[in-house]
Write a structure and sequence with these properties.
alpha+beta; Thrombin, subunit H; 6-stranded antiparallel beta barrel; 6-stranded antiparallel barrel; 4 helices; 14 strands
């Protein structure tokens, strides 16, 4: 209390000056029509700006919720598209009736599982991504992970409620790719430098390609069906003594803004894996 009284005494002149200024301002506004209109006009403008900012903040938080819903709906639509495509593949139109044409390609028997990214790194040498879905949601090791832009990575570890993905932005990960226009294939590996780019290896000097050519999944692994975009050729060089190109690929996925993904459930994984393991043994 003593400190408050001492403060008021010390700054009494300043406080009195401010009070008189406010009183004078109020008298001027109340007794002059022009000043009054200017004051209320400015006040309304300021209040409108405040409401605009507050509304933007509210919209931002609701936008995040809307994005979650849209991503889940997009996953559902992807599953419906896969089912419809497989049905169209297996059926053919006759003059009066539809009849079975041929069975569905087993590589196309897939389903997508929606998941949200709850941890993501892009500035480390060995980056990883954590998802909010796990075994109870049907996620297993070696499942491929994508989003609307393209390939993200492969599931490495799974618990009941969570899963860890090794993304392209990790030197341990090699994604089997091929040129969309000519099917020449090679592994894409991150060199640990820039989160936007990776390297394409094992492309011999006789292969013809151009800047901007698309690289897609080859379909040679359990994790990804054929045809999912990985990136595009951004730059390449080759010396006279080299047998292979040095190719830089701009990745399709922006890992800095990654928030939602789809995990690919290859429904024939167990059957194909068991068959191939029996041959190896």
């Amino acid at each position: 209390m003593r400190k408050l009284i001492a403060f008021l005494i010390k700054y009494s002149v300043v406080i009195l000056f401010i009070a008189l200024e406010l009183l004078s301002f109020g008298l001027i506004v109340n007794n002059n029509g022009y000043q009054k209109s200017v004051f209320f006009s400015s006040g309304n403008t300021l209040l409108a700006s405040f409401y605009e900012v507050s509304n933007s903040v509210v919209e931002y938080f609701f936008l995040r919720q809307a994005n979650d819903g849209l991503s889940a709906e997009n996953t559902q639509l992807k599953n419906e598209i896969v089912n419809l495509r497989n049905q169209l593949q297996s059926m053919t139109a006759d003059s009066t009736v539809r009849k079975l044409k041929h069975p569905i390609d087993p590589q196309n028997e897939i389903a997508y599982i929606y998941a949200k990214v709850i941890h993501n790194s892009t500035n480390k040498m060995q980056n990883f991504i954590t998802l909010n879905k796990g075994e109870r949601d049907g996620i297993k090791v070696d499942m491929g992970v994508v989003n609307e832009e393209g390939v993200v990575g492969i599931v490495s570890k799974v618990t009941e409620k969570f899963s860890v993905v090794i993304p392209i932005l990790n030197p341990k990960m090699q994604i089997n790719s091929k040129f969309k226009k000519n099917n020449y294939s090679g592994p894409i590996v991150w060199d640990g430098k820039d989160y936007r780019f990776a390297r394409l290896n094992d492309i011999a000097r006789h292969v013809k390609f151009s800047l901007g050519d698309s690289l897609i999944t080859s379909g040679y692994t359990y994790s990804f069906p054929e045809g999912i975009l990985i990136g595009t050729v951004d730059d390449f060089t080759i010396k006279e003594s080299d047998a292979y190109y040095n190719i830089r690929v701009q990745l399709a996925v922006n890992f800095r803004t990654l928030s939602h993904v789809q995990v690919i459930n290859y429904l024939n994984y167990e059957e194909q894996h068991s068959l191939e393991q029996s041959v190896i043994q």
